[in-house]
Amino acid sequence: MKSRPVVAAILIAALLSSPTTAQAPAVAPATAPLVTGAPPLPVENVDTVIAQPFVGLAAYLVVEATSGQVLAESNAKKRRDPASLTKLMTAYIAFDALYQKQLSLSQRLRMPERAWKADGSRLSIQPGTPVTTEDLVRGLLVHSGNDAAVALAIAISGNESDFVARMNREAKRLGMEDTNYLNPTGLSQQGHHSSAHDIGILALALLRDYPQYAKFFAEKSFTLGGTTYENRNRLLALDPTVDGMKTGFTDAAGWCLVATVSRSPRKLVVVALGAANENARISETQKLIDWAFTAYQPRRFYEAGKAIQQLEVWKSTANLVPIGFRDDVTAINIAGKTHEITTELTIPEPAMGPFQAGDKVGTLRVKRAGNLLYERDVVAFEAAPQAPMWKRMWHGFLLFLKSIFK
User: Fold this and answer.
1) pLDDT tens digit string along 110-165?
2) Whole-angstrom distance, CA of residue 96 vs CA of residue 233
3) What's the rounded Cα separation, in Å, for the pair 213 and 99?
4) Domains identified in the chain and CATH numbers
5) Are 295 and 50 spatial neighbours (Cβ–Cβ below 8 Å)?
6) Which of 113, 118, 147, 334 has the fewest CB atoms within 10 Å, i.e. is most exposed?
7) Are 384 and 354 in contact (CB under 8 A)?
8) d(C-alpha 72, C-alpha 53), whole Å
């Protein structure tokens, strides 16, 4: 009879000594507006077999969006006038306002007189005229309207000054170390600068955090008030695999372009700064795109949303939970050498409930020739609710015995 209290004491001790809290939450999902500090773009380049072409640009960056691998760069961290590529940050904050329901796409805003007076490219909507947020976003990204940028800034922050302060906070959070904004439009000002590297970080953040709004970057034209505005990114018409992102031009910046290219399973981001003219902006960017897809080959290890295994879970009503990845796990290497890319999967055990679908349960490290390229979270595809007390106590006892006899 004395054995029952002893067994009960062991069970309680085991229950208390074994963690019962949920596992650490995963990094914010791809559609979340904010992340807790995105890592900077990798700066490691890989040697190439197919020679990189001569490119007539003042600065450029070519990055594989699915893995963050930098394929080519020149003067990528040199501070330059970003021209209307500034509007990518204006869009990033506007998308956050939409995500947070501070604004809605159908909401009608009145064009401020301050926006109507903006210099440079404009939609020329008269002051006080109602216009939807969606049309302002289109005006910002398709026509590169400075009045649209100012109108959105005022709608979100009340005034341009507070909006610009937010732009700089977001740049700092994302790791854009060579960027300083002085306006939401990209009009040249002393001290208003960015770099190809930083613009690449911002482009990846837009793709990662707000994929639901990527359609705006791909629109070839839109009509407002009887006027049709054509997208200035002529690559959208010339290359059907180009699906964004933004053009820019000032006398100080030259002709600039960020292009995103989707050729499954790969997605490429090319930042091209300081071309001599509009035709060169297109031709030099196209050179980099064609070279990147020829010189490198992808290797896909895991498919997004497809379970890689069933995870055994303790102290939960669910005994097994499917786990995998939110996005495809791919990496690229020199054509013919993708065998050099390997993966290393780490799943801490024992896995303890409760946790939610989407929570991080492990880490995958993708390596090339033994060197780390990037890490990717392994997430639960289903929730693991907390088990009743008796089951938690029983599992605690079993884990206690396992710790003794392992």
Assistant:
1) 999 999 999 988 998 899 999 999 999 999 999 999 999 999 999 999 999 999 99
2) 24
3) 10
4) 13-28+303-405 (2.60.410.10), 59-297 (3.40.710.10)
5) yes
6) 113
7) yes
8) 11
